[in-house]
Design brief:
Layout: E1 5-11, E2 14-21, E3 26-30, E4 32-37, H1 46-53, E5 57-61, H2 62-67, H3 69-78, H4 80-84, E6 89-93, H5 96-102, H6 109-118, E7 123-124, H7 137-156, E8 163-164, H8 174-186, E9 192-194, H9 198-202, H10 206-220, E10 226-228, H11 237-242, E11 247-250, H12 252-258, E12 261-264, E13 267-270, H13 282-286, H14 289-294, H15 297-325, H16 328-336, H17 340-351, H18 353-357, H19 378-387, E14 395-399, E15 411-416, E16 420-422, H20 442-458, E17 463-468, H21 473-476, E18 484-487, H22 488-491
Parallel strand pairs: 4-5, 4-11, 5-6, 7-8, 9-10, 10-11, 14-15, 14-17, 17-18
Antiparallel strand pairs: 1-2, 2-3, 12-13, 15-16
Length: 494
Amino acid sequence: MRECFEIRDTDAGGRIGELAVPRADVTVETPALLPVINPNLDTIAPRRLAEEFGAEILITNSYIIYGTDDVRERALEDGLHEVLDFPGAIMTDSGSFQLAEYGEIDVTTEEILEFQHAIGSDIGTPVDIPTPPDVSRDRAEADLETTQERLEVAERVETGEMLVNAPVQGSTYPDLREAAGRHASETDLDVFPVGAVVPLMNDYRYDDVIDVVAGAKRGLGPATPVHLFGAGHPMMFALSVAMGCDLFDSAAYALYARDDRYLTVRGTRHLEDLEYLPCSCPVCTTHSPDDLRRLEGDQREEELAAHNLHVTFAEIRRIKQAIRAGNLLELVEGRARAHPTMLDGYRTLLDHADQLERSDPVSKGSFFYVSHESARRPEVIRHHRRLERLSVPDSLLLTEGDPPRADEFDECWRVEPPFGPFPRALSKSYPLTAEVPDRTDRAALEAASDGVSRLVEENPHAEISLAHRGWPGDVLECVPERVDLIDIDSAGDE
Ligand SMILES: [Zn+2]
């Protein structure tokens, strides 16, 4: 485990952790949001971010400070904490974003890291190459090589107690992201931003975001703090946390406010379209939409920014509580309903259920089956794997209810969609205590029949019968042929 990072609790790929930031002498609880502060104009003062919103950490751009004479002199003289008036931890970006936007910057990794150290940054960043999505593989590999050389340079720069970011690039090639993650985790750098995902998010490509993060996580391993760089919309926090992201930075709260846009966990609304404010933060309980519209420009921007931040921090707290309670994936399922592209993101997350299963706790509160995607959750995969290790008698009845002829078998196990078969003794253990709807869906039946097949294949010599409640023919066709099928519902009518 990284010395600066300790994991306290997990749920799916999500975790509550503690990031120790020695230079600031603070410990940041993750998942954490870092509001982005533009050193030249703050919409909401950093002191207020700490005191009113509970921000423990923020991020600002050292390249802008470096390039702005008066701010640079003050930062070098008084230190960043003094200039910004912020009591928590301060992370600084390096100018890589400007590099991506404008094609060049006039500073090296050594210079910018030394500068970040000199102005009192707590977590610094080298100048990596943010490779955009969908570039040729040759370019992605060449860029990645440059980024990796810079991480090696960063390791050699004298930065004292300052933590240093090791960005993970690789464009939209999951295997390059994985290789980049592995390389980064082998350096002695501290925090791991997954970079250049902003263009994907701007295009609503949440499925690709998840594949990119999953790749990076495979290389980084579980013990590293991961920052989804540039992700500031609360709509996608739950999904990203479930894939293993710990840190987010939001410029969105201020940028959207400037444009009269109002953030919600289900997406963005334009102030001009709102007749009601669906929020109970201090801004929304003391203003009507008309009140907000009547405010002067700057004041309206500040009120909207404050609302946007309240919503964003509230979602982070909700996610932490969901991790504690063990129902993070149910929160993700709910959030996925906000937009079809979010649903794509959630379905892609479930493509990585195997990867999530490794950090998912063996026991939690209770599994709620709330959509057909629930059939693909890591708990179902784990149960199917467990079926391979259970010992099976010579003749076994698997049944969904009270079947006829149960006494003809050595043992009788239950069958519950989506898990499939299990001995009655396990009925009270997680996740088999799941709450499932009475109106079962196809995905749950298919998952249950996969479980039956798994058990049958592992036990070629056992005689196995399946008593089901009217499963459709094509689901039953997936069950191995040698299983004797009994339809409980129609057996009663004979
Ligand atoms: Zn509000």
